[in-house]
């Protein structure tokens, strides 16, 4: 069995090659199914937004001995019948309850009911309120941040690589990462909070970094070797992806393992919700970003360029030279 170093050498020289470009129709079909499936998931299981986006009231009970979540639901609904509640445990001695917006009187009554239900002092129950206007402002700022990020990404890549087609391929890859990551959140009932949004922007930056490294190698292969390499444009792109494959795998593993450790510690040990939200989005997004760069962005760039007249002419000459060499042999 070959070692990773030997595999890397074989991939770099072309001795071993995975058909990222050659089988792009299959990869695009899989990507389309994943994106469509992710987009349809919220129709079946709506995306859960945190209280910072939706607005409402939040109660945190500290020093509890019984973490039964039904106790909190019953206590809240005893004061406000039919109130929607979302109960989560924090560590091994605290419970958090998020509800719809409540009046000051309802907030005081719910605080007393929760303290009585969990047999703690009223001082152990803290409450906070987030108005709908603040939640709307958070949503608006998050969308603006995403739009500015994508716009700057398009411009910078177009200037750096001197072709807008690389920018288009990279942006589509980023959107693919974002849609699938949000779909995973909806599918498993994860809550999208401001911390999760920060994680989303972080993984988009990671995906952009990974894509830029691969695209830089593609530019090197397609610009410098020309017809002397004996490869078509698509073959040069595929070689570049294979040459950076081991690096992409190593980077993904190195990024995913510590993030998974933070996720485990934050969610199962410390009960730190913010830490959990950020690490969860980064963990999911890191894996999706690696797939998107290799199977979506790079093959899509090849597709966008292959119909250009200079490239089609060069590819035709390369194929003719191969046929002539075969005829002579």
Notes on the structure:
The protein has 329 residues and is of the alpha+beta class. It is built from 12 helices and 6 strands. 71% of the residues lie in helices and 9% in strands. A hairpin with a 3-residue loop joins β3 and β4. The relative contact order is 0.13. The model has no long low-confidence stretch (mean pLDDT 83).
Number of beta-strand segments: 6
Given the helix and strand composition, which structural class is it? Answer: alpha+beta
Query: How can the largest sheet be summarized?
Result: 4 strands, antiparallel
Order of helices and strands: HHEHEHEEHEHHEHHHHH
Q: Order of strands side by side in the largest beta sheet?
A: 3-4-2-5
Please work out how many helical segments DSSP would assign. Answer: 12
Strand content: 5-15%
| End-to-end gap | 34 Å
**Overall average pLDDT:** 83
Q: What is the helix content?
A: over 70%
- Cα gyration radius (Å): 26 Å
Poorly predicted regions: none
C-alpha geometry:
elongated
């Amino acid at each position: 069995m070959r070692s990773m170093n030997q595999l890397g050498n074989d991939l770099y020289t072309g001795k071993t090659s995975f058909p990222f470009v050659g089988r792009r129709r299959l990869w695009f079909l899989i990507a389309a199914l994943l994106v469509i499936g992710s987009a349809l998931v919220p129709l079946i299981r709506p995306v859960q937004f945190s209280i910072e986006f939706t607005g409402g009231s939040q109660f945190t009970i500290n020093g509890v001995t019984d973490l039964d979540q039904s106790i909190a639901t019953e206590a809240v609904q005893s004061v406000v019948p039919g109130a929607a509640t979302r109960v989560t445990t924090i560590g091994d001695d605290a419970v958090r309850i998020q509800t719809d917006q409540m009046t000051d009187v309802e907030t005081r009554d719910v605080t007393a009911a929760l303290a009585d239900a969990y047999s703690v002092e009223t001082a152990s129950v803290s409450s906070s309120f987030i108005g709908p206007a603040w939640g709307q402002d958070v949503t608006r700022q998050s969308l603006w941040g995403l739009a500015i990020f994508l716009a700057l990404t398009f411009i910078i890549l177009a200037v750096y690589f001197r072709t807008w087609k690389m920018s288009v391929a990279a942006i589509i890859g980023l959107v693919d990462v974002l849609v699938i990551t949000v779909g995973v959140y909806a599918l498993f009932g994860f809550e999208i909070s401001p911390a999760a949004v920060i994680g989303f922007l972080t993984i988009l930056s990671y995906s952009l970094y990974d894509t830029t490294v691969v695209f830089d190698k593609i530019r090197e292969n397609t610009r410098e070797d020309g017809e002397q390499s004996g490869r078509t444009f698509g073959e040069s792109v595929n070689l570049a992806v294979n040459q950076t494959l081991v690096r992409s795998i190593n980077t993904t593993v190195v990024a995913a393992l510590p993030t998974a450790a933070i996720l485990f510690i934050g969610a199962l040990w410390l009960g730190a919700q913010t830490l959990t939200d950020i690490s969860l989005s980064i963990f999911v997004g890191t894996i999706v970003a690696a797939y998107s760069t290799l199977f979506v962005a790079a093959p899509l760039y090849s597709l966008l360029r292959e119909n250009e007249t200079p490239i089609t002419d060069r590819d035709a000459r390369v194929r003719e030279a191969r046929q002539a060499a075969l005829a002579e042999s």
